[in-house]
């Protein structure tokens, strides 16, 4: 898909389609009024006749509108003007894209990017339009013999901005939007792959490919024997039950100079979580292929950032393993020694995410990080608490937590903070080891984070629980690519000061 920005009049566009907004009730947007004026009230007549009310999601495709130069004019209902929010803007763009794609306009000039969205500027609107477009057009069809791809798909979109001085801003926004979309789409692809194909070795190869194609990227893969040797007893307790050996994957992009401490992103990459000996029930078990969503999203964010060539130091650590029951699997009751030296009594082998993560978090110390952010589909409790709207956020550093919350608000990939009070720590007490991996009935998301916090004392750290946000279930089943937008936004903002 090719994107451009332009500043012009709608009636003067020579294009397959011009897209303009209509508000409820029957109120033309500025671009709509311009077309209406040159066409002697063609649009307002249609509205008066009742062809369109302007309700959110309505569409009306017109051909040969008098005195315009494009083949079509697509009217998009935007709802009440005073309610027009981030969410409505996103929906309206998505609706326009699907309609264009289904009605044979291979290119279009879109004036929706001119609409007023409360508190949002041109940069935001263009970037969000690009991201929403790519999100809408995404399809994972690698394993379909026949695809229902559009016959004449939209290939080129021009977003109009109100003044010529906004053109450079618009171009920068397109660049950012494309980079975020590329990383998001990579995260979706990785997560959507079936677990018989995407195993730890496959993920490691993907990382190595990235490094082979870009000399600013380095990749290091540690195999299970090396992890054991190093002392990652918690990590290998999880991977030992599977025939697919675990891998620790490190990606480095150091463009910020040797004085700058790196941002480290750690991703949970369980390529399938059966629960292990504490086997999960069968319902929706296929969705546990998404238990590498954290890994996919840190990988995708890495793609976005390297694409933007930001002058920062970024290190991604992916803990990849398969959690399986077998004769060599770890058992409830096993006690293991973590890389930090602390011991853990495994009371439930299905609480495996914290076990692979804790060793990676200790490993991250060696990079002398500025901040460490881990991303994980960690707890079912987080789905109960926050559903699919917000990722759970827990942190030992308030400024970092606020930066992440703000980044999420800005890009529409939100997080919500939960407390990490000391009082919760005692739920992890064990009779036999330094701690257990199970926190009991209440506050499952918090106690999981409490467990991790015991391995992150040496640096500023935040944890994103994406169990509810990484994928959608049901008819629309598929990876969302979240929180690539949030993480990328956080890093973009940081690179600006
Ligand atoms: N990967 C799961 C968490 C999960 C479950 C994410 C359902 C999304 C949907 C994780 O490894 C897990 O099994 N967590 C357990 C922890 C419990 C045993 C303490 C859970 O949430 O039930
Ligand atoms: Mn589990
Ligand atoms: Zn899991």
Q: Per CATH, what is the topology of the largest domain?
A: Aminopeptidase
Q: Give the total of domains.
A: 2
Largest sheet: 8 strands, mixed
CATH superfamily of the largest domain: Zn peptidases
Please give the oligomerization state of what you see. Answer: single chain
CATH class of the largest domain: Alpha Beta
What is the count of β-strands? Answer: 20
Average pLDDT value? 98
The helix content is 25-40%
Estimate the global geometry from the Cα principal axes.
Answer: elongated
Q: Ranges with pLDDT <50 over ≥5 residues?
A: none
Strand content: 15-25%
- Return the CATH architecture of the largest domain: 3-Layer(aba) Sandwich
Through-space gap between termini: 31 Å
Q: Could you tell me the radius of gyration in angstroms? A: 25 Å
Describe the structure.
The protein is elongated and about 85 Å long. An eight-stranded mixed beta sheet has the order 8-9-11-10-14-18-15-16, with helices on both faces. Strands 1, 2, 3, 4, 5, 6 and 7 form a seven-stranded mixed beta sheet that branches. The two termini are 31 Å apart. The protein is an alpha/beta fold. The protein has two domains: 2-163, Leucine Aminopeptidase, subunit E, domain 1 (3-Layer(aba) Sandwich), CATH 3.40.220.10; 180-495, Zn peptidases (Aminopeptidase, 3-Layer(aba) Sandwich). Helix 8 packs antiparallel against helix 10 (353-363). It has 14 helices and 20 strands. The protein is 35% helix and 22% strand. The chain has helices at 30-38, 42-49, 86-102, 122-137, 167-192, 200-213, 224-230, 233-239, 293-308, 353-363, 380-386, 398-411, 444-453, 484-495; strands at residues 2-6, 17-24, 27-28, 59-63, 72-80, 107-110, 156-160, 217-223, 247-254, 263-273, 313-323, 335-337, 343-345, 371-376, 391-395, 415-417, 435-436, 460-465, 471-472, 478-479. Helix 4 links the parallel strand 6 and strand 7. It binds ligand BES, manganese (II) ion and zinc ion. Ligand BES binds next to helix 11.
